[in-house]
Design goal:
This is BNR/Asp-box repeat protein. Pfam families: BNR_2. It comes from Symmachiella dynata. The chain is mainly β. It has a single domain, classed as Neuraminidase. The protein is built from one helix and 26 strands. Strands 1-2-26-25-24 form a five-stranded antiparallel sheet, with no helix packed on it. Strands 11, 12, 13, 14 and 15 form a five-stranded antiparallel sheet that branches. β20 and β21 form a beta hairpin. The longest helix has 6 residues. It is globular and about 55 Å long. The relative contact order is 0.15.
Length: 385
C-alpha cells in the first residue's frame, strides 16, 4: 500500500515535489525460505489507466537464473499483482535476462529483452574481470495485445553492426515520425574483442521492430577512452532528440559527470557531448509538459537516488532544483574502485524508470536493497508550485 513520506528526507533539501507517496512494487514474500531479489524495473501506463511492470527476479544480481517477470496494477500503481515470467526458458542454453517495456498508442506492449548466454561461463558473472568483456548477448522483442497477460514468443533482433555485445539501456523509443529507436552502447566480448570501439548508438527500425537495418552514432570519444553507459534518448516537444549518458573514463578509471547531446535532424547528426554538471549513474530523463526535464539518477557525489529538474536554453543545459528520494542518509550503496566489474558487483540500488500518470502525477520505480533483500520500490509525486 502507498505510504506518505515522513521525515526520512533531508530537512534542508529544497522541496520541489509534493504529495509524495511510496510503496513496494515487488518484494520476495518468503525471504526466509528462498533467495529471490528483484532488479531493473520498467513500468508502462496503458490507455485504460491500468499499469504493467516488468522486472528481473533471481537469486543474486548476476545469477544465471535471473528472468524477467510481469506484474499488473489497477489502482494507479499503489498495489501490484504478480503475473509470472514473461517468456519461457530457451532450450539447450543457460540464459539469464533483463528487459524494458514500451506501450504503443493502440495499447500494444513491446518488451525489449536482453538475453545473456551463460552456457560457456556457468560459474562466472556477466563480465570478465580481466577484460571487462561481456558474455554473449542477444536482443529480442516480445509483444502483448492483452495488457501484458500473455506475450508472443521473443523474436531475436539482428543488430546492424558487430558489438560484439551490447548494453540494455532503456525501452524502445518511439518517435513521432514512426521510427523506433533502440538506444544502446557497444560492449567488449568476453575475451576483450571490440571491433566497433566504445560508442553510444541507436539501432533504427522503420517497420515497428521487425528489422533493424541501420544505426546512428550518438556519443563517441575521439580517443575511444570514454564509455557511455545507461544511455537514454527522448524526443523534445520541438522535435529535437535529447540523449543522456553516464560517462566512465576508462583511462583514469573514474566517473565523469553525465553528458548530453542533441540532434536537430532526427538523429543523423548530434552535437558534441557536453557535461550536465550532474555526477551520477543510470540517469533517466522525462520531458515535462512545460519543456522542463525531470531526471532521476543514482548520485555519486552525494548518497542516494535523486530527482533533478533541468531545462535547455538553445542547446545549453541548466540545472534547477534537486531533491533526494531514497538512500540519501545511507552509506555503502556504491563503490568507486578501479575495477568497474567489482563496482557492478556491489551496487545496492539504481536503474530508475519514470512515467506520467493520467492525472499528471509522476511515477518512479527503481531497485534497491532494503533489509538485505533487493526490492522494487516506487514513488509517486507532483511538483511544488
Amino acid at each position: 500500500m502507498a505510504a506518505p513520506l515522513g521525515n526520512s528526507q533531508a530537512a534542508d533539501a529544497p522541496r520541489i515535489l509534493t504529495d509524495l507517496q511510496t510503496g513496494v512494487l515487488y518484494k520476495n514474500p518468503q525471504p526466509h525460505l528462498t533467495s529471490r531479489h528483484a532488479y531493473f524495473p520498467s513500468v508502462a501506463v496503458l490507455p485504460n489507466g491500468e499499469m504493467v511492470a516488468t522486472y528481473m527476479l533471481g537469486e543474486a544480481f548476476e545469477a544465471v537464473n535471473c528472468r524477467v517477470h510481469v506484474s499488473q496494477s489497477t489502482d494507479q500503481g499503489e498495489s501490484w499483482q504478480v503475473e509470472g515470467p514473461l517468456a519461457a526458458d530457451i532450450d539447450g542454453q543457460l540464459v539469464s535476462e533483463s528487459g524494458r517495456i514500451t506501450v504503443l498508442d493502440d495499447g500494444e506492449l513491446v518488451a525489449l529483452l536482453h538475453r545473456h548466454d551463460r552456457t560457456a561461463h556457468p560459474h562466472e558473472g556477466l563480465a570478465n574481470p580481466e577484460t571487462m568483456g561481456f558474455v554473449p548477448t542477444d536482443f529480442a522483442l516480445a509483444r502483448s495485445t492483452d495488457n501484458g497477460q500473455t506475450w508472443s514468443p521473443p523474436q531475436s533482433i539482428t543488430p546492424p553492426l558487430v558489438g560484439p555485445s551490447f548494453e540494455l539501456c532503456c525501452p524502445i523509443t518511439v518517435l513521432k515520425d514512426g521510427r523506433w529507436l533502440l538506444p544502446t552502447s557497444t560492449w567488449r566480448g568476453w575475451d576483450g574483442e571490440h571491433p566497433s570501439g566504445d560508442r553510444m548508438l541507436a539501432f533504427v527500425s522503420h517497420d515497428q521492430g521487425k528489422t533493424w537495418p541501420s544505426y546512428f552514432d550518438v556519443m563517441r570519444s575521439e580517443r575511444d577512452d570514454l564509455l557511455y553507459w545507461e544511455s537514454k534518448v527522448v524526443e523534445l516537444h520541438d522535435g529535437r532528440l535529447l540523449a543522456v549518458a553516464w560517462v566512465y573514463d576508462n583511462t583514469n578509471h573514474c566517473d565523469l559527470p553525465n553528458h548530453y547531446a542533441l540532434s536537430h535532424d532526427g538523429g543523423a547528426t548530434w552535437t558534441a557531448p557536453k557535461s550536465t554538471g550532474l555526477l551520477g549513474q543510470t540517469m533517466t530523463p522525462l520531458v515535462l509538459a512545460d519543456d522542463r526535464i525531470l531526471c532521476v539518477y543514482r548520485r555519486m557525489d552525494s548518497p542516494g537516488l535523486w530527482c533533478q529538474l533541468a531545462h535547455l536554453e538553445a542547446d545549453d543545459w541548466f540545472n534547477d532544483d534537486a531533491q533526494p528520494l531514497w538512500g540519501h542518509d545511507a552509506g555503502g550503496l556504491t563503490a568507486t574502485d578501479e575495477s568497474m566489474v567489482s563496482n557492478f558487483q556491489v551496487l545496492r540500488f539504481g536503474a530508475p524508470c519514470i512515467t506520467q500518470l493520467a492525472d499528471g502525477s509522476i511515477y518512479v520505480a527503481f531497485w534497491g536493497y532494503e533489509d538485505c533483500v533487493s526490492v522494487i520500490r516506487w514513488f509517486k509525486f507532483r511538483f511544488a508550485v
